[in-house]
């Protein structure tokens, strides 16, 4: 019985972390599927989302949930500006300049944050209590529960956005064939701006959600971005559903490994899975299906 | 003939440089730029000649440094042999990692190379008995060359290290120059420009790519070993982003795919942060900006711009 409870506990923790990986990875997938950009600054948008939420809550004393939403919008706008300045001009020059440009952005944002924020890690003050609730012998803090629920809601909202709205349909059309889409009168520039902003804001929401649970620091995005990339690769580049499934799988596998094997090599699991997937099934576990 | 004269004049200046810059700090930066020249010249073989973006080169720098330190201190092998072995170990890792990952291209290769680098960093942090974990390895003895009459030449100053590293840099560039103008160099070009076409005319592209990667990792390993012996202290930090991003900037902004480009880039981007010292904490912010602006406005790098300017002048 004890063992079962322990497994269930690790499973819960894993699903909570999995939500964060999923949000970041779905963002990456959108940018990759629509614009062919591997955004190495995604970890910094995650960090900036957490930082923005912190300032809205701690300095402006706004409500946490409102701050979370606002920080998502702020990073959306920032993402659109970044797309305009550093992505669009490189679009026709292949993959290498694009990756290098996002790497430059990553260094820029990290060290800018280091100057403005300082190296001291801080935590977002959350309205929820820190006392864990016990559900069927499994302990879970209200913040963890919130991360899970909010994450699922965000993913659902994204699903509706992609399926039902005009811009969502345009995004899918561009992902499929951008030339035909533009012949049909879709404004490709607008779709790109929107998609990149959306992709960054998903990471930002992840950061804002994790902020009260872990501490925020300028370097907090370094490792998650690579894990998000491995999720993208596991799910199949450009496959949103695959990324969602792979994000949860990685979260669970990691937390099982941390609980039952060793914590020191926990981070290596994501990298190991990614390497194995790329070598034996480069199209991802779930194949390449594009933005559906 | 004229270009040979230029080369000799240039070499004379390079040899005289540390005698002109007398202050120890300036000499230290000179040594560091030598190390980075070797690093970025090696990296350029993957990025410039093969056209594959590596994000995992810090692994080979770290492997070179750690292998040198461990062989020298724990195993007790003489420094020169340790250095040679460290270079070979880097090359071996280059082969082991490159063999599977070179089947991938573009962003996939970039991400996998980064994942391997992260795994190696985790090993360096966690394998305490070998690497001393996060504390790193200290007290790496400077190289010693015994001379006649019981005296010896000890490379414990920046000045002596400059000449030691300069020897390796010149040797490296000479080797690279020979490779560039050999059949192997042509096959690298073929792999970069059109792999399928290269295969169709009977070039074994996978062999060419793995050979290029091994040579590249050996260069990077050598720079890591020389770094370890010069600074006498290493920690897992040498696997970090600084040693991934800096050499990339040097190669790309200097001019990928050329021999002179990465050398120019390495020297400029070792000295530039020191000139930016007044801006202290903004240094890396500016580095990030330079990377973006460089990629945006200088697709051929500095060397490319210089070539264009001299071409226009020649036409006039």
Query: What's the helix count of chain B?
Result: 14
Class per helix and strand makeup of chain A: mainly alpha
Strand-residue proportion of chain A: under 5%
SS-based class of chain B: mainly alpha
Q: Biggest β-sheet of chain A, characterized?
A: 2 strands, antiparallel
Q: So what's the overall shape of chain B?
A: globular
Kindly, what is the distance between the CA atoms of the first and last residues of chain A, rounded to a whole number of angstroms? 42 Å
The two chains with the largest interface, and their residue counts, are: A-B, 40 and 39 residues
Key features?
heterodimer; A: 292 residues; mainly alpha; two-stranded antiparallel ribbon; 2 strands; globular; B: 316 residues; 2% strand
Protein described:
The complex is a heterodimer of chains A (292) and B (316). With 292 residues, chain A is mainly α. Chain A has a domain at 15-109 and 140-221. Helix content of chain A is 72%, strand content 2%. Chain A has a two-stranded antiparallel ribbon. With 316 residues, chain B is mainly α. Chain B has a two-stranded antiparallel ribbon with strand order 1-2. In chain B, α2 (24-50) packs antiparallel against α10, α4 runs antiparallel to α10 (205-231) and α11 (242-255) packs parallel to α13 (283-297). The longest helix of chain B is centred in the first third of the chain and has 27 residues, at 24-50.
């Amino acid at each position: 019985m004890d063992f079962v409870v322990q497994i269930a506990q690790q499973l819960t923790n894993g699903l909570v972390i999995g939500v964060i990986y999923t949000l970041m990875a779905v963002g990456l997938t959108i940018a990759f599927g629509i614009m062919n950009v591997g955004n190495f600054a995604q970890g910094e948008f995650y960090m900036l989302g957490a930082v923005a939420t912190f300032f809205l809550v701690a300095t402006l004393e706004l409500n946490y949930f409102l701050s979370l939403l606002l920080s998502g919008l702020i990073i959306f706008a920032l993402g659109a500006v970044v797309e305009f300045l550093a992505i669009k001009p490189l679009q026709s020059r292949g993959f290498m300049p694009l990756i290098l440009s996002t790497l430059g952005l990553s260094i820029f944002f990290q060290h800018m944050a280091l100057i403005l924020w300082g190296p001291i890690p801080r935590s977002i003050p959350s309205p929820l209590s820190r006392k864990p609730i016990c559900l069927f012998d499994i302990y879970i803090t209200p913040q963890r529960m919130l991360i899970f629920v909010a994450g699922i809601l965000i993913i659902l909202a994204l699903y509706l956005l992609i399926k039902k709205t005009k811009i969502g349909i345009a995004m899918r059309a561009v992902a499929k064939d951008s030339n035909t889409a533009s012949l049909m009168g879709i404004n490709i520039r607008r779709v790109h701006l929107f998609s990149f902003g959306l992709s960054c804001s998903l990471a930002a929401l992840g950061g804002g959600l994790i902020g009260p649970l872990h501490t925020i620091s300028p370097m907090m995005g370094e490792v998650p971005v690579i894990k998000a990339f491995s999720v993208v690769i596991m799910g199949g580049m450009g496959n949103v559903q695959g990324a969602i499934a792979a994000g949860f799988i990685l979260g669970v596998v990691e937390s099982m490994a941390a609980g039952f094997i060793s914590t020191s090599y926990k981070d290596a699991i994501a990298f190991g899975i990614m390497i194995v997937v790329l070598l034996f099934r480069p199209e991802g576990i779930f194949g390449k299906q594009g933005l559906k | 003939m004229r270009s040979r004269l230029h080369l000799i004049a240039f070499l004379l200046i390079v040899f005289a440089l540390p005698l002109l810059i007398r202050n120890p700090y300036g000499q230290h930066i000179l040594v560091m730029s030598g190390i980075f020249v070797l690093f970025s010249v090696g990296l350029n073989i993957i990025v410039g000649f093969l056209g594959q973006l590596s994000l995992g080169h810090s692994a080979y720098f770290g492997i070179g440094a750690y292998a040198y330190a461990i062989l020298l201190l724990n195993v007790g092998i003489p420094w020169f042999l340790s250095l040679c072995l460290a270079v070979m170990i880097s090359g071996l890792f280059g082969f082991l990692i490159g063999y599977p990952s070179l089947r991938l291209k573009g962003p996939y290769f970039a991400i996998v190379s980064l994942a391997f680098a992260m795994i190696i960093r985790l090993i360096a942090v966690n394998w305490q008995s070998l690497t001393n974990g996060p504390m790193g390895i200290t007290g790496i003895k400077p190289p010693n060359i015994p001379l006649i009459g019981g005296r010896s030449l000890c490379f414990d100053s920046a000045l002596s290290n400059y000449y030691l590293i300069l020897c390796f840099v010149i040797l490296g560039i000479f080797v690279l120059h020979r490779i560039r103008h050999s059949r192997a160099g042509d096959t690298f070009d073929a792999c970069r420009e059109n792999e399928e076409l290269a295969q169709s005319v009977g070039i074994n592209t996978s062999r060419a790519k793995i050979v290029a990667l091994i040579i590249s990792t050996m260069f990077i390993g050598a720079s890591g070993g020389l770094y370890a012996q010069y600074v006498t202290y290493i920690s897992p930090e040498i696997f970090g982003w600084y040693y991934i991003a800096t050499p990339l900037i040097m190669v790309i902004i200097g001019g990928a795919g050329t021999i002179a480009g990465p050398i120019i880039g390495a020297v400029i981007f070792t000295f530039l942060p020191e000139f930016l010292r007044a801006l202290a904490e903004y240094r890396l912010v500016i580095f990030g900006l330079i990377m973006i602006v460089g990629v945006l406005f200088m697709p051929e790098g500095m060397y490319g711009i210089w070539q264009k300017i001299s071409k226009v002048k020649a036409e006039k």
